[in-house]
Write a structure and sequence with these properties.
Blueprint lengths: L15 E2 L9 E2 L4 E2 L8 E2 L4 E3 L6 E3 L4 E2 L7 E2 L4 E2 L9 E2 L4 E2 L8 E2 L5 E2 L10 E2 L10
Antiparallel strand pairs: 1-2, 3-4, 5-6, 7-8, 9-10, 11-12, 13-14
């Protein structure tokens, strides 16, 4: 029979916690939360942050991503961007600019070309402004 009083107390690993004294097993932190080594509680990550790979800390959502929901980072959809980390939303690309998915900025249309709308998702949406045309060749 195992005698818990004679066992050595070990720290819980990052991403786990033991809130109750005398616990024989550390509990995994719930999704969207993190804990340091030897933690008694897991901390929920706020909006704009998610747990790092080891679940030891909450880190900012990276550029090209946004954190509208607490503890979760999502990719910016095409036609939008986030240039800084920790953003809560993605910004739309303006007229004359476009982006693919997970963009940290928008790319300008070449030459004198522009887009009909904001939020363009590829260079194929770039064209001549109204009242103009581009000669081929």
């Amino acid at each position: 029979q195992h005698d818990i009083m004679s066992a050595m107390c070990l720290p819980c690993w990052a991403g786990t916690s033991a809130a109750v004294r005398g616990t024989v097993k550390c509990q995994t932190c719930p999704p969207r939360s993190a804990s340091e080594n030897a933690a008694s509680v897991c901390t929920s990550c706020p909006m704009g942050k998610s747990p790092d790979a080891s679940k030891s800390a909450c880190e900012n959502c990276s550029a090209g991503h946004f954190g509208k929901e607490a503890g979760r980072c999502d990719e910016c959809p095409p036609g939008t961007f986030s240039k800084d980390s920790g953003q809560l939303q993605c910004e739309p690309c303006q007229h004359g600019r476009w982006s693919g998915q997970v963009a940290s900025g928008c790319t300008a249309c070449e030459d004198d070309l522009t887009t009909l709308e904001s939020r363009a998702t590829s260079s194929s949406e770039c064209g001549c402004p109204a009242g103009t045309y581009k000669e081929k060749g």
